[in-house]
Model the fold of this input.
Amino acid sequence: MWWLIAAQHQCVHILPSAFVGGAVEHGVRHAPYGLFGGEPGQRHRNRLRDADSERELGAAEVGVPMKPGARLIVESSGGGGYGDPQHRLQPLREAIIVNARLAVVAPLPDLPTPPRAAQTQHSGPKGERRIWLGSWLKVPVYDFDTLPPDMQIEGPAIFESATTTVLLRQAETVRVTPQGWLDVQLGASA
Done:
């Protein structure tokens, strides 16, 4: 038998209590069929295994409770056979991508976010830039990564980092959080 798609086997270990939010996968109810001389494939299987039991999940089962330590086992047969690749037209030899979605809903533990180290002094803006906000304005430019916690700045202003630029408009205010994020309060004009 010739398969176009390789089979997959995945096992998800459940730590806290959880629910399967949705296990929708084609091929659970009906096995993939063979084409162009290939043989039919096997059905996909989704199994829930814990210390006491194991059960197979249906094609689109939702709201299934899962105990801590349970395992969700997802087995994909790989799809129906397409016959010998040498006897297929070139377009039929190309790989086919199959997507499946599995959602597991569970509470996540609160992760501590270490506060940024407080800086003793902040030298203020690193420069100025002319921008157009209905008219030309000269606004301060701040280095996002050097702002101390709890610093508050009123717009208009620009904040720059290696990966982003943030524009603070007139009547907007920003406060730097202990983690170094910008908490923007939108003004009445927003």
User: Anything to note?
Assistant: Residues 127-185 form one domain. The two ends are 63 Å apart (CA to CA).
